[in-house]
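RECORD TYPE: protein structure
NAME: Pseudouridine synthase
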Amino acid sequence: MDSFTLNWRIDKQDSGQSIKDYLKQREISKAALTDIKFSGGKIEVNGNEENVRYTLKEGDCLSVRFPSEMPSPGMEAEDIPLAIVYEDPYVLVVNKPAAMSTIPSREHPRGSLANALIGYYRKIDLASTVHIVTRLDRDTSGLVLVAKHRHVHHLMSTLQREGRIKRTYEAFAEGKLFPVEGSIEAPIARKKDSIIEREVNFLEGQYACTHYKVKGTGEFTYAELVLETGRTHQIRVHLSHLGHPLLGDGLYGGNKNQISRQALHCRELRFFHPFLERELCFSAGLPDDMKALLE
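PREDICTED:
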C-alpha cells in the first residue's frame, strides 16, 4: 500500500528557508515531523533523503511521505456498499443512510460507516484508517465528510473550528415553528445521569447556535437548518427545547407514528478544500422515508 505523500516545487519566495520552517507554514506540526522521522515516513529533496535542517533552494523538489496508518485492532473491515458523492486523494463525501452508526459502539459493533470505509480502503489499497470530519447520529441520514489521512484530518479540523465547513439540514418537527426564520442560541450539556441524552443548560452548557428557516407547515413543520456550532444532538435538543421535537425522535419527545427515526437529513455540505484551494459544495436529496412525509 502506498503511503500519503505531499510534493512541492520550491519557488524564489521560499528559497533560503529550512524544511522545518517551510513545513510549519503548511501546518505540518512538530509532532507530525517526529512521527515522520520515527514511524516510517521520509523527507526527500530532489530524490535524496534530508533532515528538517536542510536549506531549501529555488527549484528544489520537496517530498514528504507520511507513515502508513493502520486501523485499530477492534475496527473490522466490512464489505458494505457506500454511496460516495465525491472522492479525491484527500477526502471522501459519503451519503450515509439512517440506521447506520458513524463509528462502532458497544450496542452496534458492526455495520458502521467506519467499518465500511475500512473495507473500501482495502479494496483500493489505501494505507489509512478512518478519519471522520463531520459525524452524524446513527438515525440521521445525509452527507458525511471523511479525511483519508491523519494530516488531512488535522487541516479539516482547523477549518471546522474556523467555521469554514458548513452543513445544511432538512427536518420535520412537531407543531408550527414560529417565527418562520430565526436563530436558536441555547447552551447544551450532557444530561445528568445519562451518557447519551443532552439538554439545554444555561449554567453548565457549551454555547450552541442553530439557524433555521421554515419551508412549509401543515400538521407539522418542514424546516431547513444550518449549524453555527456542532454540539452533540444539537438540532434535536434545540427543537425539543422550543417544544417542537423532531418527528420520530423518541429520545427527545418526538412522536413515532409517522416515521420510525428522527426526521433529520444533512442535505448540503460546503467546505474549503485545503489542497484544491477552493470551496466545494455537495448535496443529497431527502431519503424515501422523509420524502413520504411531504406526500
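COMMENT: The first strand starts at residue 5 and ends at 9.
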